[in-house]
Sequence to fold (208 residues):
Amino acid sequence: MLKAIGLMSGTSLDGIDVALIETDGERIGAFGPVGYRAYSDDERALLREALADAADLTDRSSRPGALRQAEKLVTQVHAECVEAYMAQHSIDRGSIDVVGFHGQTVLHRPQSKLTVQIGDGAAFARMLKLPVVYDFRAADVAQGGQGAPLVPVFHRALVAALDGDGPVAVVNIGGVANITYIDGETLIACDTGPGNALLDDFMLRQTR
Fold:
């Protein structure tokens, strides 16, 4: 079993979720503690500026406008989040086999084979001095996928641990909602449309 730390910063821009899991890639061996690091108002404002500057991107490696500064921010605060998490839970750095770094999605157009997540994976690995995997969405799109959702294999591992027969559907409502359908060897997953993103935008306009 590998011991992996996973990180996620979603479309709500509220902050970074961190968790630990032991897994062989198909089965869940054990769950570790979870953590959270909220974005400050200034950090969130920079990320929103980066989203606006990413709207016209055609090259996923380009970082015009606020994107370069935002990428440095995302990389740094994710590293701070992991360091604080390991310190809080007395996790030995040498016990961690890999860290999964999603970064922050600023553009997702799989129909054009373009998805952009800011966050420098190589710099992040140097900061942590740990193995890091990243660019999950881009890798999926390059193989002909949609780059989302990323969670169906995890859902299948969860369902495998349940007692019971018959197909299972898992609904995940983040900024964008998605569904996973599991029935034996059949695994189907797709985004279903807006989740909390429209509510987030509405509240942002109404509470300024």
In short: The chain has two domains: 2-144, 149-208. The helical segments are 41-53, 67-88, 121-128, 136-142, 152-160, 197-206. The chain is about 35% helix and 35% strand.
